[in-house]
Amino acid sequence: MSDFIGIEIQGAEGLAEALAKVPDVVADAAIDEANAYMVRSLRAYPPYAHVTYQAAYGGWKSEKQRRYVMARISEGTITPGKANRTQNMSRGWEIVGYGRSSFITNQVDYAHFLMSDDSQANMPKLIGWKRVGDVLKERTKEILRRAEIGAKNAIKLLGL
Predict the structure, then answer these.
(1) 37 shares its domain with 62
(2) Rounded to whole angstroms, how far apart are CA atoms 130 and 94?
C-alpha cells in the first residue's frame, strides 16, 4: 500500500498551461485558492447510514471474529447502530506547502479505507463515502473557478 495518492483533475490541462504563462505569485495564489476549496470539499462526511457487516462483507469470517466483536459490544467499546463520528477524518485534511509546491494530505491512519481510489473498503462505500477522485471529479468546474478567482485576486494585488 502506498503512502501517497496522486490525483489529476481532468479538464485542468488548460489551467496548467495558463499558469505556466503568468508570474509565479499568480500561479501560486491560484493553486492555493483551489487547494483550499478542495480541502473543504474533502472534509464533508456523508449522512449516517447503518450498514450491517453481513450486507457489506457477507458475514463473519470466523467464529473467533464473531466472539471478539460480541465481547467488545458487551464491554461497550463497540456500539453498533450508533454513529461514532469523531470528525478525525475531517480534521485530518490539510495543505502542506504553498502554491505550486503544495499538496493535500490526510494522515489519519484509516483514511485510505474510507476514501482511497484504490483501497476503499466495501463498508464505507455502502455507507456513502465517496472516493477522493470522485469528489474532485464532481467539483472540477468549481475547482477551476476557484483557481481563476485566486489568480485574479493576485493580479489585482500586483496592480496588473
Answers:
(1) no
(2) 18
Question: Does residue 56 form part of some domain?
Answer: yes
Per-residue burial over 77-109, b = 16 or more CB atoms within 10 Å of its CB, e = otherwise: eeeeeeeeeeeebbebbeeeeebeeeebbbebe
Which amino acid is residue 117, in one-letter code? Answer: D
Rounded to the nearest 10 degrees, the angle between the axes of helix 24-42 and helix 140-158 is 140
Give the residues of the chain that fall short of pLDDT 70.
1-13, 81-83
CA 113 to chain CA mean position, Å: 11
**Domain end point (choices 33, 65, 84):** 84
Model-wide pTM > 0.85: no
Q: From 51, 57, 54, select the one nearest 129 (Cα to Cα).
A: 51
Cell numbers 476514501 correspond to 115
Among candidates 112, 126, 101, which has minimal Cα distance to 35? 101
In whole angstroms, how far apart are CA 27 and each of 83, 98, 152? 41, 11, 10
Residues 101 and 144 grouped into a single domain: yes
Q: Tell whether 102 is covered by a domain.
A: yes
**Residue where a domain stops, chosen among 84, 108, 130:** 84
pLDDT at 2: 47
Domain, as residue range, for 123: 13-48+86-158
